[in-house]
Amino acid sequence: MNQTKNTASINMICICCPFGCSLTINKSDDGHVVTGNKCLRGKKYAAEEMIAPKRMVTSTVKIIGGLYPVIPVKTEQPVPKEKIFTIMNILASVRVAAPIKVGDIVVENVADTGVNVIATKTVQ
User: Fold this and answer.
1) What is the pLDDT of residues 39-68, one digit of tens each?
2) Which long-range contacts (C-beta less than 8 Å, at least 24 apart) are formed by 8-14?
3) Domains of the chain by start residue, with CATH
């Protein structure tokens, strides 16, 4: 019989869907065991949080010639959590010119993550 020894237990709330499952992640000699999830997305989310947590980044950048002084932007995909402050520093220096449409790329491959930052509002 193959038994594993639990060395750590972590509790978290899943943010993948509206259920907000209370997850328990037990780190064992064989990896991570996730319980409490109602769907497979929760299991994947918990495992990724333990190995390489990622987040979406939302912010604003300055726009030249627009109706408003800034335009909202976001990363197209989640980025490594440790890159968030670097990305925010990059976005602080970005200036775009109007017009710009929803989905236009504002910064390509931000902080060498392979992820683009896109506009989330159209400004004429």
Assistant:
1) 999 998 898 888 899 999 999 999 999 999
2) 10/50, 12/46, 12/49, 14/41, 14/42, 14/45, 14/46
3) 6-51 (no CATH), 58-119 (3.10.530.10)
